[in-house]
Specification:
The protein is of the alpha/beta class and about 290 residues long. The chain has a single domain, classed as Rossmann fold, CATH 3.40.50.11550. It is about 45% helix and about 15% strand. It has an 8-stranded mixed beta sheet. Strand 1 and strand 2 form a beta hairpin. The longest helix is centred in the last third of the chain and has 23 residues. It is globular and about 60 Å long.
Length: about 290
């Protein structure tokens, strides 16, 4: 009898402890089943391209990006290639100079076009690449050219000289306005005016350019890990759609990041938005 009572009390204590636990994140597959990190890692290692969709100001996203990258490197070594939305293609030269220790940290950080949260959120990834002699690819279109599309549509890019065109996806750029990611963007803007119809095109030229530079810088047999805002790869659209247009045989894995009040279950609205969904408490502190 004493043994039974002890077991019951132990189970009760464990249940209470689990209820009072405050995990920083949970992982789910596309169907909403909770999975362990090791399952994610196993499937990542079997992929050609991995998209880690982040919330830009979420510390858990940035921490897990670094952890996952480190674990991939442990298995893949020099077969790992890194790349990010946060670096524009005209930054590749100075980024390479820094990675190859040709210039000082001060010069790089003063002269490169870095995001305001670079030091807290992206510097650890760049330093990891530097320490391990890994390629880090600046994949995003220079902002000034995305602004051209926002103002004039894709046609505005035709007037760029050849020196500028090598920094963007090859023209003409495919565009499917029926993709949900672009339709949602129009809906969020609340109208169909001239400026609004160009807004998703400006997003599309970013997606197309990132896809192009991933393909251009992924040697056969390597694993390319790309860090981007989760919207750019959610629902297997955005960058993923452009990659598939060029190489439908690529093994692509996507990770989406979301915030929920309760993280024990994946909300129905996030089912099937990615191969894996990183769920973080909505009251998590922010990096900015």
């Amino acid at each position: 009898m004493k043994t039974k009572i002890f077991l019951l009390l132990s189970i009760l204590a464990l249940t209470v402890a689990m209820k009072n636990d405050r995990p920083a994140y949970k992982l789910f597959n596309s169907e909403g089943k909770q999975v362990k990190y090791k399952t994610l890692l196993k499937n990542v290692l079997e992929s050609d391209v991995v998209f880690f969709g982040e919330m830009h100001n979420n510390p858990i996203c940035h921490w897990l990006q670094l952890e996952l990258t480190s674990d991939i490197f442990e298995k893949k070594g020099e077969l790992l290639v890194m790349g990010a939305e946060m670096f524009e293609t005209d930054n590749q030269l100075i980024l390479d100079e820094y990675l190859n220790e040709l210039i000082k940290t001060k010069n790089f950080e003063n002269e490169a076009k870095l995001w305001p949260n670079y030091k807290t959120d992206y510097k650890p990834l760049v330093e990891f690449a530097k320490e391990n002699n890994l390629d880090f690819i600046a994949t995003n279109i220079p902002r000034r050219y995305a602004a051209v599309v926002h103002k004039k549509g894709f046609e505005g890019l035709d007037s760029l000289n050849q020196e500028a065109k090598v920094l963007i996806a090859p023209l003409p750029v495919k565009y499917d306005p029926e993709l949900n990611c672009y339709k949602k963007m129009l809906k969020m803007m609340g109208g169909m005016g001239h400026a609004n119809t160009n807004l998703p095109k400006a997003q599309a030229i970013k997606d197309a350019t990132m896809a192009h530079f991933i393909l251009e810088n992924r040697p056969e047999g390597t694993l390319f890990v790309h860090y981007n805002g989760t919207y750019h790869s959610n629902d297997f659209e955005g960058i993923v759609w452009y990659l598939k247009q060029e190489n439908p045989d690529l093994k692509i894995l996507t990770i989406a990041s979301v915030e929920q009040k309760e993280i024990d279950e994946l909300s129905d609205e996030y089912l099937n938005i990615a191969n894996y969904v990183l769920v973080i408490p909505e009251n998590m502190t922010k990096t900015y």
